[in-house]
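W.,

You were right to be curious about this one. When I first looked at the sequence I had no strong expectations either way, so I just let the prediction run and decided to look at it fresh. Below is the sequence, 66 residues in total, followed by the output.
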Amino acid sequence: MTDGTKRAEITAGAKVSIVLKQDQRSGKLTHGIVKDILTKSATHPHGIKVRLQSGLVGRVKVIQAQ
């Protein structure tokens, strides 16, 4: 498992845990499968922003082993 700060480590279809905007203070994680990668830069210190297949948008905190 790796953190989600590098865009190259995240692909569509990957299982990830993200933190939603409203959950940033609590750190509550939401699990799902990546549909789109929204961050354009190669890295982001708070995690790469993605859209899950469920439509939720948040920053990747954990990339689960496939």
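Here's what jumped out at me. The first strand starts at residue 15 and ends at 20. And, maybe more interesting for your project: The mean pLDDT is 95.

Coffee later to discuss?

I.
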